[in-house]
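Work Package 3 (structural annotation) set out to generate three-dimensional models for the target panel prioritized at the project kickoff. During this period the team completed the workflow that converts sequence records into discrete structure tokens, so that structures can be stored uniformly alongside our sequence database. As a representative example, we reproduce one entry of 453 residues exactly as it appears in the project archive.
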Amino acid sequence: MFDSLSGKLGAVFDRLRGRGALSETDVLDALREVRLALLEADVALPVVKDFIAKVRERAVGAEVLRSVTPGQQVVKIVNDALVDALGGAGAVPLNLNAASPIPILMVGLQGSGKTTSAGKIALRLHKDKKKVLLASLDTQRPAAQLQLQLLAEKAGVGSLPIVPGETPVQIAHRAMDTARREVYDVVLLDTAGRLSIDQELMDEVRAIREATNPVETLLVVDAMTGQDAVNTAKAFNDAVGVTGIVMTRMDGDARGGAALSMRAITGAPIKLTGSGEKLDALEDFHPERIASRILGMGDIVGLVEKAAAHIDQVEAEKLAKRMMKGMFTLDDYANQLNQISKMGNLSGILGMLPGIGKIKQQLEGANLDTKIIGRQAAIISSMTKQERRQPEILKASRKKRIAAGSGMTVADVNRLLKQYDDVSTMMKRVGKMGAAGALKGMMPPSFGPRRPF
């Protein structure tokens, strides 16, 4: 997400930085390009106009034009304006400051990821020691209530028993009564969606809101729908009032305009983002980090947090000790692949690194995909213990057996062994560098622009 916008803005600011001094004309020309980039990214026109006006007011001032680094000053102004457009500095948490049971209403169009997002939020609250009840109010979509029940089981939270024939409002009343009786902390009410906005949908959501008086009304929108997501947000906000937004498919190939428009259109902050179907794939929305990524400055804090949450520290320390002794087997390599896969989409991870846009075309040619990790892991798992410890014994006949057992080709096996050799050589060098070097060698460089599987 944001790749196209980031690339275009990066090109504009590179030209500004390359000049020792800037005239007012230089700045205005750059802002015209920024305006076009924002419009092409599906940012709502009123938001673009307001954004450009704010930046122009500050960027053409004497303090910028006479600055020692005017190009960098303009970038700083644009960064601040982006943060403001995205909702201001700092993540906005869910509002749980109310008497239990706290009702949270989930609204949105069909296919936006509303039910999955309800499951993700339930899991997060469960990890925070909250007793959560999931209730499906969707009587329109076949098996919608059963889907939420299965998600509740996966998340380890309660789910409201299904009673055929009830209306959404009746289900909502029963959910709140059950929550009070069984002392739940939070009730997540998953409403029905439609393929498009209609009066019947809005009337139903209004009736549920009046019956439950939710502390939070979370609108779930699909980032991939671009300008349509903005229109949906406006319609729901006008009809029922939105207190927060959950943006899904943030790892997809979206232009990013919806995220930049949401706060201005609804007045409600983006509180959470989802990327992927896994229940733990839910993150707080940090405007300053997103702005930094849009401008090609990465999100190192987010990357460190992701690594800390998913990488097994004990395993990492064991590997570091083995590296210090010059030991690195295919088992170690497989463990590294597993650790990286837990962090999610590889392109998303690399997108958090500063300056990654500079080599975007090279990375696209590398076929960065978590499937690569799965394929390499399959090859390694088809080897015997001896073969994983002594890969030098892998000759033609053994490679054919491993390829057949993993569903790959001999060429794939050879490619894996070549990558392993490269990493193993690097690890041996790192071992000689000491502990500081060991830490730098934790990420295998096996996803560079080699021929993909």
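The domain at 102-297 is CATH 3.40.50.300 (Rossmann fold).
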